[in-house]
Design a protein that fits this description.
single chain, alpha+beta, Archaeosine Trna-guanine Transglycosylase, Chain: A, domain 4
Length: 326
């Protein structure tokens, strides 16, 4: 962490993200659904939205209908962070079917060849342009081999297609291969251990609405701040918060501290001393310059999350000059 002008959390303003009133938590909340096989990610998101009566909802990282596992869904204001969640690394466990007989040693050898930086062309049925692009496979572990079926666990950079990864391995095997089963076990900080089913979400909601007991719902709905795990962070002074909620850019004098990973041109998250997500923006300079320069704009504000006037107004709006009339 690089420190410019360290400021302690205020006792008068702001709140601990995990202690928000339940209505605020729902307004800026994320639920991690254990997606079942069958429905599309869009359908699961629509059902979750309907259950909690959200105005809008959006999911991060589309899973094919037959794929199960971790599907983060953001509600209302938290939908502005979906792109940030998409940047996080993903982990999967799956079964690859090899179309011919291949020695176990050769399977292990090829698996190692596909670790690290690879080139991948998205499959024909994808929402992105089909062109070769670099992606990182952090690891590809062969867990078990039974005949032509290979049980594997892999962690990959966001935007890596596991179906295509299995296909490309099949080419390396010289006999072909395809993905037979797949489950996402992790998306950034969200794991299958904390994921819930739609039925569990419905139960928690009914418990809250009918019995006015929010305990179950609080265990399920996570604060929006959990969704920015993979984004570099800039901590700002209390005096800078209100102006950002009106769309102003962040100046260097409004910065308390920044993470060393902050890089010019990259997405950053601006937070209060209490860890509340104020807005997402684009860094206009590197983190080191943010703590060294005397003046200048440090971050361009793109998406505001926190409500207006939650923090005190310390800035003055420019009034138009009066003109004389004859």
């Amino acid at each position: 962490m690089l420190v410019r002008d360290l400021e302690e959390p205020s006792e008068k303003y702001g709140e601990d993200p995990w202690k928000r009133p339940i209505k605020d938590l729902l307004e800026k909340g994320i639920v991690v659904i254990d997606k079942p096989a069958g429905p599309t990610s869009h359908q699961v998101t629509a059902w979750a939205k309907q259950i909690v009566g959200a105005r809008k909802a959006g999911h991060s990282g589309t899973l094919d209908p037959g794929v199960t596992g971790v599907l983060p869904i953001a509600f209302n204001s938290a939908t502005k962070t979906v792109q940030a969640i998409l940047k996080a690394a993903k982990e999967y466990i799956g079964v690859m079917y090899i179309h011919g007989d291949v020695d176990e040693s050769d399977i292990q050898k090829v698996a190692k060849q596909f670790e690290g930086e690879i080139m991948q062309i998205p499959p024909a049925k994808s929402a992105v342009k089909r062109r070769s692009r670099k992606r990182t496979v952090y690891y590809f572990k062969v867990m078990e081999i039974q005949g032509r079926e290979v049980l594997f666990r892999t962690s990959v950079e966001a935007g890596t297609y596991i179906r295509k990864l299995c296909h490309d391995m099949g080419v390396a095997f010289e006999v072909g291969a395809n993905m037979k089963e797949l489950r996402r076990t992790k998306a950034g900080p969200f794991t299958e251990n904390t994921a819930v089913t739609l039925h569990q979400l419905k139960e928690a909601w009914e418990f809250y609405k009918l019995k006015e007991d929010e305990s179950l719902l609080r265990k399920i709905i996570r604060p929006v701040e959990d969704g920015i795990f993979a984004v570099s962070k800039v901590y700002i002074k209390n005096s800078a918060v209100n102006s950002l909620t009106y769309g102003a850019n962040l100046g260097v004098n409004g910065i308390s501290k920044v993470e060393k990973t902050v890089e010019q041109g990259k997405m950053v998250a601006m937070l209060t001393a209490k860890g509340e997500l104020v807005a997402l923006g684009t860094a206009l300079m590197d983190g080191e310059d943010m703590v060294k320069l005397w003046e200048g704009e440090a971050v361009k504000t793109n998406r505001v999350i926190i409500e207006k006037d939650r923090y005190p107004k310390t800035w003055k709006s420019k009034k138009p000059k009066k003109t004389r009339t004859k």
